[in-house]
Specification:
Strand order of the largest sheet: 1-2
Helix content: 55-70%
Structural class: mainly alpha
Number of strands: 2
Distance between the termini: 20 Å
Number of helices: 3
Order of helices and strands: HEEHH
Length: 91
């Protein structure tokens, strides 16, 4: 792949990422409108056409890594293992 072709790919990547961001914002706006209607109706679940829309409270328990590290620093270090990944960025 030549320099011009590579530059074109990077430009296309930037365009697609911009489109993706616009779509993500539009998706969130539509979701927020649906949630607002559900809140107005006081509903956690609605049947809409062939869809069932749910907006429910979910409780989950997650491990608090920061608190564990502060309270048990040596044990935390004993169970940490390094990982190696590759990060792709365009600046």
């Amino acid at each position: 792949m030549g320099a011009n072709e590579l530059a074109a790919k990077v430009h296309r990547l930037r365009e697609l990422e911009a489109e993706q961001n616009e779509l993500a914002a539009e998706i969130e706006a539509v979701k927020d409108a649906i949630k607002a209607e559900m809140a107005a109706q006081g509903a956690e679940e609605l049947a809409v056409d062939v869809f069932k829309v749910r907006w429910q409270w979910i409780t989950s328990n997650r491990f608090d890594q920061s608190a564990f590290k502060a309270a048990q620093g040596a044990l935390y270090k004993a169970f940490c293992k390094p990982t190696v990944t590759r990060r792709f960025t365009v600046a």
